[in-house]
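User: Okay, second chain of the day. Same drill as before: sequence in, structure tokens out.
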Amino acid sequence: MEFLRQIANTLYKNNGYQLSDCCIVFPNQRAGLFFTKYLSEIIEKPIWSPEVITINTLTEKLSKLQVADDLKLVFDLYESYKTELKTTETFDDFYYWGEMLLADFDDIDKYLVPVDDLFKNLASLKEIEDVFSGFSDEQKEAIKAFWSSFNPDKYSKHQGDFISIWSALLAIYKNFNAKLKAQNLAYEGLVYRYVATNLENITSQLDHKKYIFIGFNALNECEKKLFYFLKNKGLAEFYWDYDNYYVENNNHEAGFFLRTNLKDFVPSQLDLSFDNLADTSKKIDLIAVPSNVGQAKIIHSILSEIKDEDLSKTAVILADEHLLMPVLYSLPKSIDKVNITMGYPLKDTPIYSFIEHIVELHKTVKKEPNYIFYYQQVIYLLSNQFVRLVDEEAANNLRTEIITGNKIYLEPLELAATPFLTKLFSVVKNPDDISAYLLSLLEIIVGKCNQESNKQQDMLELEYIYHTYLSIKRLKELIVSYSIAISKVDTYFKLLKKVIASQTIPFIGEPLAGLQLMGILETRALDFEKLIILSLNEGVFPKNTSAPSFVPYNLRKGFGLPTIEHQDAIFSYYFYRLIQRAKQITFLYNTQSNNTTSGEVSRFIYQLKYESGYTISEKSQVFDVAFADKKPIVIDKTEQVQTKLSNYLSNSELKRYFSASALNSYIDCSLKFYFRYIANIQETNKILEEIDAATYGNLLHKVMKFLYQPYLQKIITADDLKALKSNHNQIEKFIVTAFHEDYFKQPESKNIALVGNNILIAETLKKYIDRILTVDQQYAPFTVVALEEKYTLNLPVNLAGKEQEICLAGNIDRIDKVGNNLRIVDYKSGNVDLDFKGFDSLFDSINEKRNKAAFQILFYSMLYHQSVSSANTIVPAIYQIKSMFDDNFSFNISADKSVILDYSLVHDDYQTRLKELLAEIFNSATNFVQTENTKNCVYCPYSGICKRD
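Assistant: Same drill. Structure tokens below.
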């Protein structure tokens, strides 16, 4: 800290014990803290400390005005805005504009802009020469450049809107200022203007013999007037932190402000070199990293090489403060002392996420006729760490119940499992009650946190909750005191999110010891031997955007308000001042382009490379993210696997059954079969917001069962079918029942109405059902033999030289008797082919067009053929619903174009291959492996395990 240390020595030497009569003024608190430390190291005996303050504190002290918090200021500004514009605009709509307007008023006052002139409608360019005769030609040209596009006789719509607001800003400004002064309150700019315009009146408040200003750069007009005033009275000394490298070069932007400051406010003598940047022996490394988090990870290796005694001389500078947490987690464990100068954004904390989910829960609540919540937000909250902290078991049970029950909309009573969950999922109807609702939830969470072990993580969470609690309480107080009418719950939540999002949580630590972790603004006047600067990207450092403003660029320029050029000069000074006394510097930047950065290194690096004469060692950090060679997954049929397979044998106590789906699964991929039927890895349950193909098929099957159930074991005639077709109310009732059972998974007493896409699905179901009944009339009369009935078979198969019975089973959609034929009917709502190329193709795992539907209907036919003694001809029949609308519809399947009219004729061919398949499943020498047909992997639920593309 050469600059501050030398100043401490100089001031003590020049003033001795009279230093206590001085006021030391810094641009920020951090510099004052280190100055006090260095001063304490050199004094020989105890003395009264000088007052060490920031420029903001000094102006507030001189003005005797109190700076109000931003939220209150915006509320007051809203009152003035409504008064002057006579508008009914809601506070929610005003909030964003209010923050922007407040920032503009702050600039206007700090730069002593004549508000009466600024807010004039100067579309008549002749007035500009008269009104601004004292302005420079450059300023007048800038003002003319803006107003020249306005035609007083005819404004465009946008120009008209601008003029209507612009004309009211002066009245809003004056009303707002009067309102604040009546309360003895102010915003920062108003404090500055008051001091600058009342300098003679505040002389009595100058209670120090000397005011010493240290480390300033860009001065606003109010600061300049104060500096001039104190200098002229012989009360001021100035110490500027700079380097001749950029001050003596009139084209260098880093010295833009200092070149004027050094002339206007001549610095006191200081035994310190100001030619540090001329020393080209600095060790400078530039590391390109392909990600933001990657920069944080490199910090670990860089800091690990620094000796412990050098850590206090080292600073990690974050140009992008969002990297704070990744950097903290990347610090070596050996570093036990870290001072963090920046606050952590409350919007990045878990409690903010919790509030956000509550906001979304209430934004999506519906009233039809009772209040209901949308499942997605309920699931998010039940999975939230704070909800699980309070009621983990109840939250888990509710979550499982919602998913397995496919509950898309939930009533509050369904979620009232505990007092906390009852409160959480209560509907807040009145916006005035929201604050109390949120505060009570936070109080319960805090109570639970206090019951847990006092770990560091718990302390952090309590700090998050505390600041959130304060924000909500403060918002509640202001809404009440200002009688802000908030008619919608949504409006309150929008405002709350904005308020919380603007808050930061300060870190508490020892500021004078260990590694310094800092933001750019906190580095002013501080020096470090070793610097590690992250996110040195163009667009980040310097920023390539300016703050939003009501005052257009040309008017800002014309009236001397700061513009993007001023911002660039300030950032340039921060950069060069920071590195001027450092001996070892490491720059890191992100090479990845995204919405916020271009992946380009900062322009300051190019200046160093091509103008300074420094040797910069450039490196690229490459992360090896190549995927390892995928090894095929092979599951041996170990003794444990064989034991599980034996459960499918008839002599097993568990007696599990192979279905057609299971065997189709094995043919498609034996590994998939293993995961599902041997390892018993279940697919993840998901809530179906929209009906998928499988659920659609289930609905169709269920309705057809309902329709034919009264005719089970009875003959159904063409007239019966005609009557069924015409009974639209009954069909609609059955469809609704099917929806409740298979989709809503709720009893009909819940009376959930079909809405949106479900209405369309119900209509298509009606058309399909009508067509099935129409087609069935062609075969009437027929007897309904069975509906959705399960048939089982113990099939003898030779396993390792020993005949054993394997259990097979299947639920057949429908069996009917037409004449002497027994039809085994399988409904298919999707597209299927009724022809297959020989029986070998049905068992060929490589065949991409393998006919799974034919395999299944033949499996069902075999079950019935062998389990039920019947003299009737068994006919496999597939009702492919979409093709039933064709005039030449046929339900028959065929092998190599040869129609199968009697299953018994193909039974031996099918069963022989089926037995071979079953023998292969039980063969200990045949492993479970991944399929060679990767098209089967596209929709496989286990693709995440296999990592197949």
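The chain has a mean pLDDT of 88.

User: Thanks, on to the next one.
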